[in-house]
Amino acid sequence: MHQVLSSTPEGIFTINVGPQHPATHGVLHLVITLNGETILKIEPHLGYIHRSIEKMCESLTYRQFIYVTSRMDYLSAHINNHACALCVEKGLQVEVPMRAQYIRVIMDELTRLASHELWWGAMAMDVGAFTPFFYAFRERETINEIMEETCGARLTMNYMVPGGVMADIHPQFQQKVKQFIAGYKNKIAEYNELVTGNVIFQNRMKGVGYLSTEDAISYGCSGPVARASGVACDVRKRYPYDVYAQVQFDEIIETTGDSFARYLVRIREMEQSVRIIEQLIDNIPEGDYQAKTKAVLKLPKGEFYQRVETARGELGVYIVSEGGTTPYRIKFRSPGFSNLSALNEMAKGGKIGDLVATMGTLDLVIPDIDR
Amino acid sequence: MLNTISFEAIKTAVQQWLNMHWGPHLAFIAECILIGLLVIVFFAVLGLLLVFMERKVSAVMQIRLGPNRVGPKGWLQTSADTLKLMLKEGLTPDGADKFLFNLAPFLIMIAAMLIMVPIAFARNFQIWDINIGVLYISSIASISVIAILMAGWSSNNKYALLGAMRSGAQIISYELSAGVAVITMVMLTQSLSIQDIILSQQNGWWIFKGHIPAIIAFIIFMIAATAETNRAPFDLAEAESELTAGFHTEYSGMKFALFFLAEYINVFIVCAVAAILFFGGWMPFHIGNWEGFNHIMDYIPSSIWFLGKTFCLIFLIMWFRWTFPRLRIDQLLNLEWKYLLPISLANLLLMTIIVVLKWYL
Amino acid sequence: MDNEALKASLLPLNANLTFEEGGEWVNVFVPYNELKPLLKTLQGEPDLYFNYLFCLTCVDWKTHLTMVYHLTSLKWQHNLVVKAVLNRENPQIETVCDIWKTAEFLEREVYELFGVEFLHHPDLRRLILTDDFKGWPLRKDFEDPVNMIKL
Amino acid sequence: MSIQQYIKNVFNAVKTLLKGMRVTGYYFFHPKEIITQQYPDNRATLKLADRFKGEVVMLHDENNEHACTGCTACELACPNGTIKIITQFDITPDGKKKKALNTFVYHLELCTMCNLCVEACPTGAITMAQNFEHSVYDRKQLTKILNKPGSKIRAGVE
Questions:
Q1: Of C118, C48, C51, C115, which Cα lies nearest the Cα of C88?
Q2: Rg of chain B over all Cα atoms, to the nearest angstrom
Q3: What pLDDT is recorded for position B2?
Q4: Residue range D11-15: average pLDDT?
């Protein structure tokens, strides 16, 4: 008979998860070394969706390059744009009007909600529950409609521009957001009933994919992944930008460091996002939505770094300027890239089912990793 | 009797006609062929119906509309899908063990078909009332695991192999608690024959008059049945977010459709068995000696009773599937060996006491 | 620690440090062969405690390459940018992935996009590009007539 | 694990499962909650947001006049080279040469709807339209000429 399945005498064999695999949410490729069902090693292979955005940005002007960044972490497109706009503003030393700052932060938090919604649905799907996906998309759809009305697009909005936002909010924006927020709290309760409390789900999540505090710091993890391991790293708290310094919200920190902690951090972060929006939505000050900037932006010679908190963690925009209209070198420090590098540490020794649960709670967006 | 056009009447008429015209031997052969054809047709219709039902149930639970384009209200959707699957090329991978690879889907269908034998669809309408009906069902049900292992191994695909191995561990362990739950009910009826079991529920179904042990046995049987049919939350053999499609990763076209069909047939069969054991099969809803009430209930045809009960249970299993996340393989085995098996054994003891003391009605 | 205090505490660590003025954070240049011990001290010293490497990248200045390490201390909340100049023909530098594990992936990325060779790196393979890819894409002189569209 | 704990565990587990089933059960018995939109069928009632960015169009008034001066600000603002403006020199009545638009070429296949050209336009000649059904059989059809044949610049627009 022909040879069936190559493996070593000890029964150790490798399988390829991805680039097309339901659990990788995109084109991530993991080479997994297995002993039976137990994972010995995970090696990520990246680059299936690498577009070299950094190189592209070198030939685009400071106004133009922002739209490309929506295509990195497409689930927090607003926040990516926000980071770039802030970085350019830092170089230009432009004061952004208060109205624009308020709008930006509300948009950021709506984006975060939408992103966490999608994560919640997709993660429930990873562990085998299909129905939550649709409930999550129902809420996400409402947010998208609000976005569409104000920004003109649903996913890659390109709404933030250096100096403010591209257009004023839609007249119905405030009313619609308030309506959404009012109904949304019940939805979180429903999510908890359907998924969080479920005994099967808790068993799948608890004690799985453990990441210690030291490792989280050493691997450069950020966002909910690091906060679930007890690292206080919320950029919104540590280095507040725009009006984040003025709003009241809690930095969610869990200390258990397992998948369930990461899950809880995100769920509770959704509540905090709601809280931020509630504080801001009624108090948007009157005024300009955009500061006066020159038609052609030129950054002074120097280096500018801006970090923001996306739904996945700390996004850094590093612009090296030679004084021209285009950046000399631009680097995006993407949260997913660092979080992914810790995957081997988390999933080692677990089962294949654990790997899926762990990857689900990492909330990987592959274009963000590959850029 | 009440039902002049019952299944029983049709069966008797056909039998008489055949015997009258063809003589006993030929009539027997003709009957066999007829039954075979009936079972195949029944399978096809059932498959289409259950797939459609699953899609609609899941859709409404997921705040969607579900299939609604092909035919009135989408009723022909599954037929269209079947047509598509038939037209698709049935690929056999190069590295596969071709004989086993092609055999496996048929084996799983044959196993499903064989279980059909002792199930009573209506009053006196049964292919063969074997006196060990329940035992026969439990033993034939285990054949499907061979087919799954065969499919997984012969595919020469690591995902398929992992899925098959999971499935093997799962089905073999859940057979135990399903078996014990069945034995609990056999204690009550004191017969293995399906006919006897149904008739013993003449004045009330076992779920109502069997006290707590019957209810516990029912719950355990439903859990074990869900596991045995490889359905969520126990669909580890397929677990599409982990193993893409598990043991049938490499199958396509009609061979894949057979696996798919077999899953639904198995769901139907386990639900039918549960309906027979706990809800009296085709037996109408009777309460003790309320003659009037029982009489009204008898007007509803027995086949409706049987199918109604079965489909309610199928709905329950579908409800499970669209609500719960999937278990992990070690948790799955934990659940069986640390929870279901001890509980069902204790339950069996309890039932024995009840039966010995004759506490049941 | 504010920028001035940080500068003051950095000075005794290495005699060859040069500071770059301007910018939000302290920018310090260090000879590439002395980078590793400096970073090790920066991470270990309890007063500095730069335990979080949040960005590691390289800039091609056409005449030379500059490695840029962005460090922060989650405990003291101060930031530092350490830079090292490499020659362009044969860029080599010690790996820092035994100090911060995140550097393993970041260095692999820099290796394949800039061609910087990290000495003693445990697994210096291409991460993003295909194994037979020629050239260092993020260098300024990289040309790819097929895939690069000049507007 | 004591026997009490064991029984408690089993009961709690069953309770959480039933809670989950209640949620899905609620939606099963309340089909009003269904949110599916049957897209191609609801074209008549489908209303897109006014700001929806579907494609770039040039505004023409009833006299077939537009406001484009051919200044190429949009061409410069576009990050993808979507817009190509071909200009010509008109002779004004007082005998001077004046730059004017000849053809406004718009490559829809390259456009990312970033709205930068509309922002850059000094005269408000172009805007975003709410059309999103762009699929065609030939890619060539996606290259559009936005100024209508015979159109000319509106008087007074500089």
A1: C115
A2: 21
A3: 47
A4: 86
> Is the four-CA dihedral C126, C131, C137, C139 of positive or negative sign?
positive
Q: The whole model's pTM is what?
A: 0.86
Query: What pLDDT does B170 receive?
Result: 85
pLDDT over 50 at A1, yes or no: no
- For chain A, list the domains and their CATH numbers: 49-370 (1.10.645.10)
Residue in chain D lying closest to A161 (CA): D116
Question: In this complex, do A128 and B325 lie within 8 Å of one another by their Cβ atoms?
Answer: yes
Under the banding of pLDDT at 50, 70 and 90, the label for residue A3 is very low
Task: Name the residue among A157, A103, A115, A173 with its Cα closest to residue A139.
Answer: A115
Chain B: give the shortest CA distance to residue D46, in Å.
Answer: 18
- Return the domain boundaries, chain C: 3-119
| Cross-chain CB nearest to A5 (options B161, B242, B244) | B161
Domain D55-153 has CATH 1.10.240.10: no
Provide DSSP, A264-330. Answer: HHHHHHHHHHHHHHHHHHTTPPPS-SB----SS--PPSEEEEEEEE-SSSEEEEEEEE-SSSS-SEE
Q: What is the pLDDT of residue B1?
A: 43
Measure CB to CB from residue A15 to each of B158, B166, B241 and give the nearest one.
B158
For residue C64, give the DSSP letter. Answer: E
Answer yes or no: is the ipTM higher than 0.90: no
Task: Give the start-to-end residue ranges of the domains of chain B.
Answer: 91-357
Q: Which of A131, A156, A166 sits opposite D119 (nearest CB)?
A: A166
**β-strand partners of C79:** C72
Q: Among B207, B205, B358, B209, which Cα is nearest to B294's?
A: B205
> What is the C-alpha separation between C106 and A95, in angstroms, rounded?
34
Paired tokens of C27: 């920018």
Report yes or no: A233 at the B interface, CB cutoff 8 Å.
Answer: no
User: Do B325 and A198 count as a contact with CB atoms less than 8 A apart?
Assistant: yes
Torsion of CA A311, A314, A320, A323, to 10 degrees: 50
Reply yes or no on whether the pLDDT at D122 is more than 70: yes
Touch D-B: 3+ C-beta pairs under 8 A: yes
DSSP, collapsed to helix, strand or coil, labels residue A205 as: helix
Are the beta carbons of A121 and A114 closer than 8 angstroms?
no
Angle at A164 between CA A160 and CA A169, to 5 degrees: 75
Q: Is A344 on the interface with C (CB under 8 A)?
A: no
Q: Quick one: average pLDDT of A348-353?
A: 83
Per residue in B34-54, pLDDT tens?
888 888 888 888 888 888 888
pLDDT for position B360 = 62
- Please indicate whether, in this complex, the C-beta atoms of A201 and B325 are within 8 angstroms of each other: yes
Joined together, the tokens standing for residue A21 give: 């695999």
Interatomic CA distance for residues B203 and B213, integer angstroms: 19
CA distance A246 to chain D (A): 31
Q: What is the pLDDT of residue B203?
A: 75
Beta pairing partners, C82: C28, C69
- A21·B244 Cβ contact <8 A: yes
Give tens-digit pLDDT for B197-219.
887 777 777 777 767 788 888 88
C3-119 folds as Beta Polymerase; domain 2 (3.30.460)
Q: How far is A9 from chain B (nearest CA, A)?
A: 16
Q: How far is CA C112 from CA A291, A341, C58, C137, in A?
A: 40, 17, 11, 8
Bond prior to A19 in cis (omega within 30° of 0): yes
Share of chain D above pLDDT 70, in %: 98
pLDDT digits (tens, 9 = 90+) for A198-233: 888 888 888 888 888 888 888 888 888 888 888 888
pLDDT tens digit sequence for B69-118: 888 888 888 888 888 888 888 788 887 888 888 888 888 888 888 888 88
